[in-house]
Design goal:
Helices cover 60% and strands 7% of the residues. The chain is mainly α. Helix 1 crosses helix 2.
Length: 152
Amino acid sequence: MKEIRKLLEGLSDGLKMMAEGINAIAEKVNAIAVVEVEGKATPKESPKPKAKKAATKPKVVKKAANAKTVKKATAKKKEKKPAKAAASAKDKSETALEAVMEVLQKTDQGLNNAALMEKTGFDSKKVSNILFKLKKQGRIKNVSRGVYSASI
């Protein structure tokens, strides 16, 4: 009986440690999601949430408290850092979609991803995502494979 009890206690401790690890990962994902939805910072600038013990509070309460903590930490971080100059060709007031649309409207024959990356300063993944969204909205069309132009 003692051996079984020790095994079960060891299993219980292992599960608690795994739960804490999963909670820490969930908090990081939540922090990134909050930052992405609010558009206040890039995921690289997002604050690192503190890991909390799983056994002390119910999950619902912990998630709500974590969301508030992340929002407060993000707001504090934004206040401390001065605004950076825009590295790309776009104006701060326009969105990434608008920046790509503006570049595409200025060309007659259309542009590929590499040209759009060069003109906007966005990375490949961001340009691809923007092109997908614009095509889905019907605002751009394919001139040929990999070449996009603004729809008229």
